[in-house]
User: What shape does this take?
Amino acid sequence: MENIEANSSADGDFVNLIVTHQPLIRGRIISLLPGVSEVDDIIQNVNLVIWNKRESYAPKTNFKAWLNSIIRYEILTHWRTQQRRKEFTFPEDVFDLLLEESTSQIDQDIMDERLPALRLCISTLRAEDRALILQRYVHPTSIAELSLKTNRSANSLRVALHRIRTSLRLCVKRRLSLNAATPN
Assistant: This one.
């Protein structure tokens, strides 16, 4: 009976770890596969693999590193599938290099610092731009669906989203620079 309770408690703790890391999972996948409509499917696959491999995770070790290896593998699997369909046009070694580089760049401290800045920057957007960004990324909607909802062409939406993302990137950079320059 004690063993069942211990497993149940361990599974509960593991579920909490998975839930806590969902923004990291989503962010990592979107950063590596921007504009890919299957992001939710990839996230679901990642979560399934995490759950199925939970016995191989050693508690009190680096969960993010373990998680990133699973995400990396699932993204590579997706990329290979798309490569067979000729949807991606660069060689696997280039894509693998991108995956490695992004893994080394992701640091939770940086994300913890950028998220509040991003939220503030989003709040300063025009209402129309904010709604567009939220529809595209917070409640993932494809460009085709957005085009139908907004009565705008797909190309004009791509241009608008690019402009908004650039504006947000510059705003976040400015806010982080201001925070770094301000003594604590």
Q: What stands out?
A: The chain is about 80% helix and 0% strand. The two ends are 52 Å apart (CA to CA).
